[in-house]
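Supplementary notes (optional reading)

For those who missed the lab, this is the record we used. Protein: ADP-ribosyl cyclase/cyclic ADP-ribose hydrolase. Length: 1237 residues.
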Amino acid sequence: MASSSSFASNSQHCPRWKYDVFLSFRGEDTRKTFTGHLYEGLRNGGIFTFQDDKRLEHGASISEELCKAIEESQVAVIIFSKNYATSRWCLDELVKIMECKTQFGQTVIPVFYDVDPSHVRNQRESFAEAFSKHESKFKDDVEGMQKVQRWRSALTEAANLKGCDIRARIESDCVQQIVNQISKLCKFSLSYLQDIVGINPHLEEVKSLLQIEINDVRIVGIWGMGGVGKTTIARAIFDTLSYQFEGTCFLANVKENKCGMHSLQNILLSELSRENANYVNNKEDGKQLMARRLRSKKVLVVLDDIDHRDHLEYLAGDLGWFGNGSRIIATTRDKHLIGKKDALYEMTTLADHEAIQLFNRYAFKEDVPDEFFEKLTLEVVSHAKGLPLALKVWGSLFHKRNITEWRSAILQMKKHSNSEIVDKLKISYDGLEPVEQAIFLDIACFLRGREKNEIIQILESCEFGADIGLRVLIDKSLVFISEKDTIEMHDLIQDMGKHVVNIQKDPGERSRLWLAEDFEEVMINNTGTKAMEAIWFLYLKGLSFTREGMKNMKRLRILYIRDGSQNIWADSICHNGSMEYLPNNLRWFVWFCYPWESLPSTFEPKKLVHLELQSSSLRYLWTEITHLPSLRKLSLSCCVSLMQTPDFTGMPNLEYLDLSLCSNFEELHYSLGCCRKLVELNLIWCDGLKRFPCVNVESLEHLELHGCSSLQKFPEMKNLSSIQYQTHITNLDLSFLTDLATLPSSICRLKNLVSLDVSFCYRLESLPEEIGDLENLENLDASSTLISRPPTSIVRLNKLNSLAFAKGKSDNGQVAVYFVFPPVAEGLRSLEFLNLNYCNLIDGGLPEDIGCLYSLKELYLRGNYFEHLPQSMAQLGALRSLDLSYCYRLKELPDFMGMPNLETLNPLYCMNLEEVPHSIGVFEKLAELTLTDCERLKRVPTLWIDSLKCLQLKKCSSLEYFPDIRGSMKLELEIHMLGSVIRDLNSFYNSFQLTLYQNDISISDSLSQRVFTILHKGKRIPSWFRIKGMDSSVSVNLLENWYVRDNFLGFAVCYSGCLIDTTAHLIPFCNDGMLAMTLELGFFYHLECDEESTIHPFKKKWDGESTIHFFLVPFASLWDASKANGKTPNDYGIIRLWFSGAMKEFGFRLLYKDELEIEALLQMRENNDESAERCTGIRRSRYDNEASCSSGKKQRSHSNIQGSSVFENLQQQVEPPVSSEILRLNRSFPEIFPSWR
């Protein structure tokens, strides 16, 4: 085999593929052997394959249908056999395939079936005999002989491609190899599709309705009864076609959404834009936002299981919301939800043979049934009537059953042969044990969609065998575990479960309630009974009920009432006293906004495991000790009226206590120390808490005291000396304890402590000397404290990953206490993050051996006062980010040769920095270099950095030369230079590969569409700008045939005054379907132009001087052929510039290659008011005498000047400005001057 590859690059004119594979073969050789097997393998793999099953291979040439099929196939498989070349039909196919490979980038895979590849390549043996006959036939026909030669060339080219020689190989292995190869080429995984019975016909039908090859936007509905496989087909289509779209989103179970339409819009925007979108607050705003964000994006969206017109209206209401080529697929049970103009595909049930195959897989775990069960199998399948869900459920039911059990179950099925599917599914329910039935009904009525672990906890609290019960339900296909680890079930199965409960007409007689209105009816009428086991619902408005409504619900085990708005601060109506009765059998009790001041005194639920009364009106739980031996979690978060915590003596098994945001209680009950199994204690923002009892830390892992601002002393920890090696606490959050002055040394005995946060403890002056004993500590945050001398033992924390002592930025400048970091001494071996921002570091404050922090990746030293950095810093080989901004006294940077991984260097506002080490120029990974406001910086070394994406040189007023960045020039590179003065402009142009000599300006390909701007001191517009004027606009009337390809470069603009937005319009001579070309040369942040303004960026340095702004605008950045309606640039006659603010004067000039002889373009001489420019070697443009200019008010030009009539009709001609990708060298500076926004 030749080594030439068959992977052709995709052409710009590549069509949208309709087929995945086209098979070319000699029918009489391989149709019933290899080709047939390959075709079935491709179909089973979900690969959409074109095979001409009815081909007769007669006629002079192949049909147009086959030509089109070849063109619309992503991959062509050519099966060469001994008689392949005898068929002119096959040879014509081959020629067409090779043409498509060249033209469209089609992938071609040759397969050599019982032939030697060299015989195909060189036309030997049977191929030689075949061509001998062809040449004999066409020997007197010139065109025929030319065709024979094309056949030979195509055979040679195809045989040279990488393919599959199946001689002496197992045929099935070759088939699988080809299927695997094509699966990878088609860019999606097909493995799971192989197990879906009968999917291929549905895939092909839906693909034909989608018509991916057409560049429009369309909606396709998939309609059918529940359980028929709509979602399965939609998912398969989604996985198959996703790679062809810019954005994709599969919005599952739309009708189950309980959080409002805007939440679905947020999900859709997040998935399609690949950004975290959580800013849609109402569905109307969501429609407008979707239209704006998605209209230019080709997307694939699946709206699964919609049941209301609002779903389409607010998620895909207008095809104009989406970019060309987008496809929306909606699955629904309601045919009328799909618009009449949209394509609709009806999902039908499985054919008999497919239904049998599917049932067998579940009943016997294979496609072929046991012969003893064959007749019984046909009986079951006939009752399922091809419904996939019923086949799966019944197949699981009959699995491992004997014949007697089969016959008994079939008799039950026959009784319901004409009933609804729900009744059929109930057979599976009836086959469950009582506990399994209870688990199933709990999931069907209210637990579906929740996390598996949470469901297991709830079921275990009810003393159900949750793990075993769930496994039985999964095995019987009644539930399944989703990719998100939630418990799910099919809609029909859920409906069946709810039907079982709703057999009782009276809600009070039912075992479960999940609707708020049913709960209100039972409570108001006091009709609850012993049958009630669980109440679980969300409500969106106030509830009506009585105190004694639950008096008869003796067996109630689950009570879950929650506000559906998910607002933790939801208003609750406070009722004096307490509810009269709550069932003592409760195991899981959640009541969001519980409206009474306390719980009933008779409520002693000894089996209660979970008690959560978030945002309630509680003032206290009980007045006396209540024994809750089973309670593991108690959550009273956001109970702002809570005045005292309960007595914990009766809660020996409590593991989780949440009192966060309870702001009115002052002390925890002393009995908390009795909770020896307490794992997590959350007291975040309990800002009224003053006193804390003794804490038993034998089991405690998480202690959250964040924001307890009234707590003056850290709580003592009982028996630390005896259990110092057995403590389990891992996270200790003491942040925002604003009155905390010291930490007890006993903290250092918490050997398992992983995270310690004392940030914003404003009075804390020191850490315990023994802090180094915390051998497992990984994160230590002491930001915004008074700590200035960390203990020397801190360097022994060799597992420490993150360390922060950052202070807030001081308004008064330097403070009295200097920060000193102890010598590293080869400690802190795992430290990756170190933040010492605004720590008042001076020379000597950083250890001289800081280079020993070999793992350090991020170092933040912002706002310190050192002049020099330790020399060992050059040894920080793992460092990726170094922040030295606002270090005003820093004079030099360290040598960077030892920092090969540095990606971000940020020394902005280092006003005394004079130079940057040359070693920075060879970094391989540096992406961002920020040198803003380095006033004394004169030079930046040559930067040969491929990774550089952002270079900031703003306000470097002493910069003499623009750095040589030709080795770093990439299309995405941003350069910011606002306020910088470059005295040698040739260095600037050289860096951008602009040669300004011998009548030529050339721009590198990567920059041909960029707009460059330069800012300089000066008063006068250079004379090189022949067209001049004043006021806010200028229009230049262009000559006929003004545009000369490869000669016209663009135009240059110059104006004096402050920085303003500028918009350029290229306007046609006449309105003949052409649109104006618009380019915004805008700035996102504007400057104050008031001469008396104290915040003008140049007022301080350039007082009394003006600024001159230059734009170099390549023509490619303005011209947009898509708006020209087939016209050329010479059909446009006016260039108009709008200036959005006041300026003193402007200049304009067209740029042509053959007129420029420039030694130096705009050499500015400092402090020379008489001559602000030096331009030499410029001869008068032959175009200057012919172009004309007009401006709003005062005009002066070296060319002919016309009146303002040019402007009168421009309002109708100019299109609204559109955004354009522009590289602005003086882009913006919001971080430095926020008031200019």
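If you only remember one thing from this example: The first strand starts at residue 19 and ends at 24.
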